[in-house]
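Consider the following input, taken from an annotated entry for ABC-type uncharacterized transport system, permease component (Rubellimicrobium thermophilum DSM 16684).
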Amino acid sequence: MGAYILRRLLLVIPTLLGIMIVNFTLVQFVPGGPIEQMIARIEGRGDVFESFAGGNAEALTEAATDQAGSTYIGARGLPPEFIRELEIQFGFDKPPLERFLLMMWDYVRFDFGESWFRSRSVVDLVIEKMPVSITLGLWSTLIAYLVSIPLGIRKAVRDGTPFDTWTSGAIIVGYAIPGFLFAILLIVLFAGGSYWRIFPLRGLTSPNWEELSLIGKVLDYFWHITLPVLASTISAFATLTLLTKNSFLDEIKKQYVMTARAKGLSERRVLYGHVFRNAMLIVIAGFPGLFISVFFGGSLIIETLFSLDGLGRLGFEAAVSRDYPVVFGTLFAFSLIGLIVGILSDLTYVLVDPRIDFESRG
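Applying the prediction step yields:
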């Protein structure tokens, strides 16, 4: 097992490098870079993308070719020396390959630099936003597993019965509803949108959270996360339930289950003593993907709708403002986390079923 883990760890290096190369290359072709953003702010235009949306092609062409041939939109009215200082400040005075190598050298040492537009280190920003995303990812994944696994087992045992039919219908409906649409529905119904004002609409805690007792803080915390977690869980809940059911059905039909029943073992002993261990392998395999998708992927819209200041919003705002240290720093860190979680998933396989030997696969 040690040799397998070593191989997987070594494979992390080229995989991570490939992810960074692809994203760095794509960024080179995206219009509206950080210098254009800075110039737009200095000239009071707010956002460079307003220029692209404005449709004034003649003005854009004039601005792009003004000031000694500068290619930066918005350079009109600013001296070329100032533009040159911005290029040096953001590192764009160097060729792309040199910038990429310098960036990767810093990242290998876990030096992610500072945000260009927030004047704070990337690590501090991530640490500040992390609790919100951890809350959504952890609780959503935990609830999905706690509900989906027992329900999936029940559906497998009662396959073809009315219980299986109506629960399958409910699950399909839940899977078909987009998370953001379900979030809007929850807001309308339970957060004062049009009906009841049971849950708060924004934030992870109340303004007076520091003044509350320990029990009060816990209750306030769960009061705030109820709707966001439900909105994040809906699709994962449906997928995991059907995955558990199908996995159990495949195992129940195998010969060893018939043999165990023939020996006189109780149905509960057969189900949880023999079938459960084998059927759970594929469910465990989906854990990293489920957690990562909720933690990183699905958090943006949910955080925006419920005004939660987490990693999803941080990444979106960094991408819009072309804050590349935040974009690439978080991309590097989260890609590394995802790869490590994949290795931990393989180790979990061995814990569930010691018969699995990854080294023999060579």
